[in-house]
Design brief:
Elements lengths: L1 H28 L2 H4 L13 H12 L8 E3 L8 E4 L5 E4 L5 E5 L6 H11 L3 H26 L17 H14 L1 H15 L5 H4 L3 H9 L15 H11 L4 E6 L7 E7 L10 E6 L5 E5 L6 H6 L2 H5 L5 H37 L1
Antiparallel strand pairs: 1-2, 1-5, 2-3, 3-4, 5-6, 6-7, 7-8
Helix pairs in contact: 1-4, 1-5, 1-13, 3-10, 4-5, 5-6, 5-7, 6-13
């Protein structure tokens, strides 16, 4: 038990600041659509397929300004997001008029905050670090609850330490940690599994990573170049005809040499904000190449698709957003106070004793 206690303390001392950053940024991102603060942000989303086809055609018309992808308005955000190369992009209203434009993610707080939370502003390396931190976080929760059990009779509900002293902070850490342990377990596990898919096997079985990979794999690349004569109205109409109950969420130009335009739709049963119901169209002709209904995926892939909406509070409305806000703020408190008590408060105590 002593070794477990030392491992818990040292891991917390080393990763405390990172957990503080992840907790605060996550709590802010949960409410991102509410604080973007641009005109038309509260507009009701378009649902008419013909109007969405016209909007896509207008946004894709000029090859010089054509976005790499379009994310259509949702029930919580009435703006259309356009993404370009090198972090450039724009928000447009649902008539296609540009509301805000940026050449770098640093010009939009919600974009760099998202990058901070998901990649530590360091690309794939940062994402890997966050994945490791999430895995260690699972150890924090399990070891913390185990260590708390010895002191359970002294438990007291407190959101803030009684005093800013090392003993008071340690006691607050134990009691707050056990209160939010289920939320932290969910946050750490879903976040880690999204970065390191093999972690999905812990709850979905040993065959989950391969099943997920197969479910998300696109058709074979064709290498076809994007034609300037693509009929975007026809693409949108075909997508709605194939899946009439689904909501159009995203249109993306071919990546690398895939030669495929991808269209993502969200079925009524899906929790994932942009859905996993996907259609692929030939980039040179606009011909439908393949379609995949998220409802036909295996249970492991469908379960994996629940991880992100649970982690990012994209389901459950305001109630679940508040729950995950509590998770983020609690993580920030635990991480920040742990780092301070481990590196600074203990040193002060040792100096006074000397």
């Amino acid at each position: 038990m002593r070794l477990l206690d030392q491992l818990h303390r040292w891991a917390g001392g080393v990763l405390g600041i990172l957990l503080l950053v992840l907790g605060l940024s996550g709590a802010a991102l949960v409410h991102r659509d509410a604080w973007i603060g641009l005109p038309h942000v509260s507009d009701q989303r378009l649902v008419d397929p013909a109007a969405l086809g016209d909007l896509t055609t207008r946004l894709m018309a000029d090859p010089a300004t054509r976005p790499q992808s379009i994310i259509f308005a949702s029930d919580t955000l009435g703006l259309v997001r356009l993404s370009g190369k090198g972090g450039a992009g724009a928000y447009a209203d649902q008539s296609g008029a540009i509301v805000a434009r940026w050449s770098s993610q640093w010009e939009r707080p919600e974009l760099w905050l998202f990058d901070l939370h998901h990649h530590l502003l360091a690309g794939d390396v940062g994402e890997a670090i966050i994945g490791v931190a999430g895995a260690v976080g699972l150890f924090f929760v399990i070891s913390g609850v185990t260590l708390w059990w010895r002191t359970r009779k002294s438990f007291a509900f407190r959101l803030w330490p009684a005093r800013i002293t090392r003993p008071a902070i340690l006691r607050h850490h134990r009691d707050l940690g056990v209160l939010v342990a289920p939320l932290l377990l969910l946050s750490f596990y879903t976040g880690t599994a999204l970065v390191f898919r093999p972690f999905a096997a812990l709850t979905l079985g040993p065959g989950a990573p391969a099943a997920i990979e197969a479910a998300l794999k696109p058709p074979r690349a064709s290498g076809a170049r994007l034609s300037d004569a693509i009929d975007w109205r026809a693409i949108v109409a075909t997508a709605h005809k194939r899946f009439p109950e689904a909501e159009l969420r995203l249109v993306s130009l071919p990546r690398k040499d895939s030669g495929l335009i991808s269209v993502r739709m969200r079925q009524p049963e899906e929790w994932l904000p942009n859905g996993r119901t996907t259609l692929w169209f030939a980039a040179d002709s606009g011909r439908l190449v393949a379609a995949r209904d998220a409802r036909d995926l295996g249970w492991q892939a469908r379960a994996f698709n629940l991880f992100y909406p649970l982690h990012a509070a994209k389901v459950g409305g305001l109630a679940w957003r508040l729950v995950m806000t509590i998770s983020g703020l609690a993580l920030a408190l635990l991480g920040g106070f742990t780092c301070w008590s481990f590196w600074f408060a203990r040193r002060r105590t040792q100096i006074r004793r000397a």
